[in-house]
Amino acid sequence: MKAEKTEAIAIWMVEDDALFREGIRTLVERTPGFFCERAFSNCEDALNDLRTDDAPRILLTDLGLPGMSGIEGMRKVKELSPATEVLVLTIYDDDERVFEAICAGASGYLLKNSSGEEIVSALSQLVQGGAPMNAQVARRVLDLFSRMGGPKGHYDLSPREKQVLHLLVQGLSKKQIADKLIVSFYTIDTHLKNIYEKLHEHTRSGVVAKALRERLI
Amino acid sequence: MKAEKTEAIAIWMVEDDALFREGIRTLVERTPGFFCERAFSNCEDALNDLRTDDAPRILLTDLGLPGMSGIEGMRKVKELSPATEVLVLTIYDDDERVFEAICAGASGYLLKNSSGEEIVSALSQLVQGGAPMNAQVARRVLDLFSRMGGPKGHYDLSPREKQVLHLLVQGLSKKQIADKLIVSFYTIDTHLKNIYEKLHEHTRSGVVAKALRERLI
DNA sequence: AGAACAATACCGTGTACACGGTATTTTGTA
DNA sequence: TACAAAATACCGTGTACACGGTATTGTTCT
C-alpha cells in the first residue's frame, strides 16, 4: 500500500550481457520499493535518453562495455545528473578500475559474483545514504587511501618556517611574503635559506613540489 | 573441535569506557574462533605490552581516549606490527577523524551504535581480507576520495608541453630540460612561455603547484 | 591549397632568486 | 641564569627566470 509504483525508486541499468541484464531486471522488479525503469546494453543509448529533469535515482552499471566505458559513462551521467547514485556491478576489482570508478562518482561497488540478496540489500543501503561495497573492494579502497595519504614527511620546520612555506606554495615572492608577515625582505630570505637546507632543496619549485607531494602544509 | 583456543584469533582491545569494554569482551568471548586476549583502557598501556613477535591479529580500538588518541595509538601499533589489523569502533563519523584513521592504517570502521551481530560479522570479514565499514562511513570515504581525485584539470597542453611540464615538476632548470630533450634552451623557453599562458601562471612554482594539485602530470 | 597548430630557434632586458657571509634580539627551558 | 634555538636583519655576487619580440619548419585537417 505504501510503496506504490509512483513512489517506488527508479533504476536504470547498463549491462551488455542480455542474460545478466534480464536477470537483474527481474530481481529488481521483484523487490518492493524499486522498479527497473530502463535497461540498456551500452552507455551511449542510456545517455541519449537521459534528461536532467527526468533522471533516475539510481544507475546500475557494468564497467566493461562495448563502445564508451562504464567509467566514462558514469562521469557523463554524473555531469548531467549529479543526484543520480551510481552502483557499479562488474567483474573487475583491480586498483585501477576501482580508483577510477570512485573518482568518477560511484556510490557503491559490487562484484558480479554477488548474490541477488546482496544486490537488493545494496539498493536499500544506497537510498539510505550508505555505500554498499564488496568487502575486498572496500579493503582496496582503504589501502589506496592510506597509501596516498601516507608518509606526511617531517623535516622539523619551525612554526615561522611553516608559515613562510605556506605562503611560498601560494605563489608569493619573497617581497610579498615579507610584506604579508610585516618583516624585512632579508628575514624571509634567511627563512628560505633555512627551509632549503632542511628540505635538501635548492629551488623554490623543488620546495613547492616537496611540500605538496609530502603534504607538509 | 576445530576452533580450539590455540587456533582462535587473538584480539586486543582499547576502550576507556569500562562497561562498554566488558560488553565487547563478553561478545568476543562468546564468538567461536576469536578470543579477547587483552583489554586496555588506554593506548599507552597497550603499546607498553606490545611485542613485535607477540602482536595480536586484530586490534579493536576506540578513537576518543584519555592520553594518547586512538589515531596516534594505531599509528604506533602499525609501526611495530604492520600485520595487525585495526578495527575502529567509535562514536565519531566526521570526515577529519575518518580520514585520519584510514591514513593511519585502519582496516575497518564501525560506529558504536552497531549491533553485536554487526561487530561479530565485522571480525569475520576482517580475517577474510574484507574491510567492514559502517555504511555512512563508507559513503564518506568514497566522497572524500572522489573529491581529492576529482577535477583533474585540463588546459589542453600539447604532448611536448606535457613532457616539459613533467621535467619542470621534477625540478629541472630550463637548461637541463633542454639538454634532456636535446633541443635548444630557447625552445624550452618558448614552451614554458606557452605553458605559463595556458595555465594562467607567471612563475615556475605556480606551475608546479598547479600541476601537482590538479594532477596534470 | 591554405589555415591552424605544434615544435623549433633566437635575442635583449629587467627582475627575482640562490647563497655565501655576518650579526642582533627574543624566547623557551634546562 | 646561562645556553640553545628561533626570529630578526643586512649585503654582494652571479645566475636563472619571465617575458617582450620575431621567425622558420613541419603536420594535419579542411
Care to describe what's here?
- Two copies of one chain form a homodimer.
- With 217 residues, chain A is α/β, with parallel strands linked by helices.
- Chain A has two domains: 2-146, Response regulator (Rossmann fold, 3-Layer(aba) Sandwich); 151-213, Arc Repressor Mutant, subunit A, CATH 1.10.10.10.
- Chain A has helices at residues 18-29, 43-49, 70-80, 95-103, 116-127, 135-148, 159-169, 174-181, 185-199, 204-213, and strands at 9-14, 34-40, 58-61, 85-90, 106-111.
- In chain A, helix 3 (70-80) links the parallel strand 3 and strand 4 (85-90).
- The A-B interface holds A 99, 102-107, 125, 128-133, 135-136, 138-139, 141-142, 144-146, 148-150, 152, 168-169, 171, 173, 201, 203-209, 212-213 and B 99, 102-107, 125, 128-133, 135-136, 138-139, 141-142, 144-146, 148-150, 168-169, 171, 173, 201, 203-209, 212-213.
- The structure holds a DNA duplex (30 and 30 nucleotides).
Say what the CATH topology of the largest domain in chain A is.
Rossmann fold
Cα shape of chain A:
elongated
CATH class membership of the largest domain in chain A: Alpha Beta
Round the Cα radius of gyration of chain A to an integer and report it. Answer: 25 Å
Average of per-residue pLDDT values of chain A: 89
Q: In the residues of chain A, how many domains can be counted?
A: 2
Tell me the fraction of residues in β-strands of chain A, as a range.
Answer: 5-15%
